[in-house]
Design a protein that fits this description.
By secondary structure, this protein is mostly helical.
Protein backbone atom coordinates (compact mmCIF):
# COMPACT_ATOMS: atom_id res chain seq x y z
CA UNK A 1 0.00 0.00 0.00
CA UNK A 2 2.88 2.38 0.76
CA UNK A 3 4.31 2.03 -2.75
CA UNK A 4 0.87 2.58 -4.28
CA UNK A 5 0.32 5.81 -2.33
CA UNK A 6 3.81 7.10 -3.11
CA UNK A 7 3.10 6.42 -6.79
CA UNK A 8 -0.14 8.40 -6.45
CA UNK A 9 1.74 11.34 -4.95
CA UNK A 10 4.40 11.21 -7.66
CA UNK A 11 1.77 11.02 -10.41
CA UNK A 12 0.34 14.42 -9.39
CA UNK A 13 3.66 16.06 -8.54
CA UNK A 14 4.91 19.08 -10.44
CA UNK A 15 8.49 20.27 -9.88
CA UNK A 16 7.41 23.82 -10.78
CA UNK A 17 5.37 23.93 -7.56
CA UNK A 18 8.60 23.64 -5.61
CA UNK A 19 9.59 27.13 -6.74
CA UNK A 20 6.27 28.43 -5.42
CA UNK A 21 6.88 26.70 -2.11
CA UNK A 22 10.25 28.42 -1.81
CA UNK A 23 8.56 31.82 -2.16
CA UNK A 24 6.60 31.05 1.00
CA UNK A 25 9.66 29.84 2.93
CA UNK A 26 8.49 26.23 2.85
CA UNK A 27 11.29 23.69 3.15
CA UNK A 28 11.71 22.03 -0.23
CA UNK A 29 14.74 19.78 0.16
CA UNK A 30 12.54 16.69 0.23
CA UNK A 31 9.45 18.03 -1.54
CA UNK A 32 8.16 16.64 -4.81
CA UNK A 33 5.71 19.42 -5.66
CA UNK A 34 2.23 18.11 -4.82
CA UNK A 35 -0.54 20.62 -4.12
CA UNK A 36 -2.47 20.51 -0.86
CA UNK A 37 -5.78 19.82 -2.66
CA UNK A 38 -4.15 16.81 -4.35
CA UNK A 39 -2.80 15.57 -1.00
CA UNK A 40 -6.28 15.93 0.51
CA UNK A 41 -7.79 14.00 -2.40
CA UNK A 42 -5.30 11.16 -1.97
CA UNK A 43 -5.99 11.16 1.78
CA UNK A 44 -9.75 10.88 1.20
CA UNK A 45 -9.42 8.00 -1.25
CA UNK A 46 -6.88 6.27 0.99
CA UNK A 47 -9.21 6.46 3.98
CA UNK A 48 -11.88 4.69 1.94
CA UNK A 49 -9.50 1.89 0.91
CA UNK A 50 -7.62 1.34 4.17
CA UNK A 51 -9.27 0.11 7.35
CA UNK A 52 -8.79 2.33 10.39
CA UNK A 53 -6.68 -0.30 12.15
CA UNK A 54 -4.05 -0.17 9.37
CA UNK A 55 -3.82 3.60 9.00
CA UNK A 56 -1.48 4.20 11.92
CA UNK A 57 1.22 1.91 10.55
CA UNK A 58 0.84 3.38 7.06
CA UNK A 59 1.12 6.90 8.49
CA UNK A 60 4.37 5.95 10.20
CA UNK A 61 5.68 4.46 6.96
CA UNK A 62 4.75 7.61 5.04
CA UNK A 63 6.43 9.78 7.69
CA UNK A 64 9.58 7.68 7.54
CA UNK A 65 9.97 8.35 3.79
CA UNK A 66 10.90 11.93 4.75
CA UNK A 67 9.05 13.18 1.64
CA UNK A 68 7.43 16.50 2.54
CA UNK A 69 4.04 15.75 1.01
CA UNK A 70 4.03 12.17 2.35
CA UNK A 71 4.44 13.57 5.85
CA UNK A 72 1.48 15.89 5.38
CA UNK A 73 -0.52 12.94 4.03
CA UNK A 74 0.52 10.88 7.07
CA UNK A 75 -1.05 13.50 9.34
CA UNK A 76 -4.29 13.27 7.37
CA UNK A 77 -4.70 9.50 7.45
CA UNK A 78 -3.28 8.52 10.85
CA UNK A 79 -5.68 7.14 13.44
CA UNK A 80 -5.78 9.81 16.17
CA UNK A 81 -6.64 7.21 18.81
CA UNK A 82 -3.30 5.48 18.24
CA UNK A 83 -1.11 8.58 18.39
CA UNK A 84 1.06 8.72 21.49
CA UNK A 85 2.94 11.50 23.23
CA UNK A 86 6.15 9.80 22.09
CA UNK A 87 5.03 9.96 18.45
CA UNK A 88 4.12 13.62 18.87
CA UNK A 89 7.60 14.31 20.27
CA UNK A 90 9.29 12.38 17.46
CA UNK A 91 7.30 14.03 14.69
CA UNK A 92 7.72 17.48 16.27
CA UNK A 93 11.49 17.04 16.23
CA UNK A 94 11.21 16.36 12.48
CA UNK A 95 9.45 19.66 11.72
CA UNK A 96 11.58 21.81 9.45
CA UNK A 97 8.93 24.01 7.89
CA UNK A 98 6.03 26.08 9.15
CA UNK A 99 3.55 24.41 6.80
CA UNK A 100 4.45 20.91 7.99
CA UNK A 101 3.97 22.06 11.59
CA UNK A 102 0.61 23.67 10.73
CA UNK A 103 -0.68 20.65 8.84
CA UNK A 104 0.36 18.05 11.41
CA UNK A 105 -0.99 20.06 14.34
CA UNK A 106 -4.29 20.88 12.60
CA UNK A 107 -4.85 17.49 10.95
CA UNK A 108 -3.76 15.22 13.79
CA UNK A 109 -2.25 16.55 17.00
CA UNK A 110 -5.16 18.79 17.95
CA UNK A 111 -7.39 15.70 18.01
CA UNK A 112 -5.45 14.30 20.98
CA UNK A 113 -6.93 14.60 24.44
CA UNK A 114 -3.49 15.49 25.79
CA UNK A 115 -2.74 18.07 23.08
CA UNK A 116 -3.47 21.10 25.24
CA UNK A 117 -1.19 19.82 27.98
CA UNK A 118 1.64 19.24 25.52
CA UNK A 119 4.14 22.01 25.01
CA UNK A 120 5.46 21.89 21.49
CA UNK A 121 8.94 23.32 21.24
CA UNK A 122 9.86 23.52 17.62
CA UNK A 123 13.39 24.55 16.72
CA UNK A 124 13.15 26.14 13.30
CA UNK A 125 16.20 26.62 11.12
CA UNK A 126 17.33 30.13 10.28
CA UNK A 127 16.06 31.21 6.92
CA UNK A 128 18.39 33.09 4.63
CA UNK A 129 15.89 35.30 2.88
Amino acid sequence: MLAFILDELKSVSDPERIEGMKRYAIGTDKAIGVSLPDIRSIAASSKKRIVLADRHLLAKQLWDTEIHEARILASMIDNPKEVTKKQMDQWTRDFYSWDLCDQVCNNLFQKQIFFLTKRLIIPMPKLNL
